Amino acid sequence: MLDLALAQQLRAAGLSWEPAPGDRFVLPLPEMQEEIFILSNIVADVHRFESGNVIGFNGTTEWALDSVEQDDVVWLPREEQLRELLGAAFVRLEQVTGGYAVTATAGNGEDRRFVDIDAERAYARAVLSRLAVAQSGGPA
């Protein structure tokens, strides 16, 4: 899973986010940054009773925040979302010693390799590279 620092780098590089169900995000406050929130159309909780478990459907939970501005949270894109962001530039994903490598084609036609401890982070590094090149006006 992406760490907050890498997700913040993606955001700072210009990655836009249109929130959708299933998306993960964090509040970058010291006391909240370990809590990962997932967008959902409805919250379902398991209530445990001696007679058995009951799944309850709730509009909100008692401890829920009333609301938070989108700009105040940091999106943690999932692996498939990052791969989609690479689009046709994605070449391959491979397992390597100590992690994974994503190969993506740069704007000059050359393949570049991005390695990290898990696939999601390797994809994020490839996306970050493409965003940096796009911001500089060079070929992605």
Give a short summary of the structure.
By secondary structure, this protein is α+β, with helices and mostly antiparallel strands.
Key terms:
single chain; 140 residues; alpha+beta; three-stranded antiparallel β-sheet; 25% helix; elongated
Write the layout of secondary structure elements.
Elements lengths: L3 H9 L11 E3 L10 E2 L4 E7 L2 E7 L15 E3 L2 H8 L3 E7 L2 E7 L5 E6 L2 H18 L4
Antiparallel strand pairs: 1-2, 1-5, 3-4, 6-7, 7-8
Characterise this structure:
With 140 residues, the protein is of the alpha+beta class. It has one domain. The chain is built from 3 helices and 8 strands. Strands 2-1-5 form a 3-stranded antiparallel β-sheet. Strand 6 and strand 7 form a beta hairpin. The chain is elongated and about 60 Å long. The two termini are 25 Å apart.
Stretches with pLDDT under 50, minimum 5 residues? none
What's the SSE pattern?
Answer: HEEEEEHEEEH
Number of domains: 1
* Overall SS class: alpha+beta
